[in-house]
Amino acid sequence: MENKYLIDLSVKYGLNSEDISKLVSMMYQVDLDDMDSEEFKRVANYICEAKLVELPAEELIEELKRKGLIK
Description:
Layout: H1 4-13, H2 17-29, H3 38-49, H4 57-66
């Protein structure tokens, strides 16, 4: 894990390497692959803040759509 933002998220929300990998994988699934973009950071922060990392992909995608964070 080399990205400073991901390191900050892991420390702030107590995420382990597996959680971060799952988060990054989910972000790629919703076409947010630029880890330096504000959109990536906003969505990743929401997922962590709302403790949605453990949700199945389908449920997480629906939640992000419902909140208007992704199209």
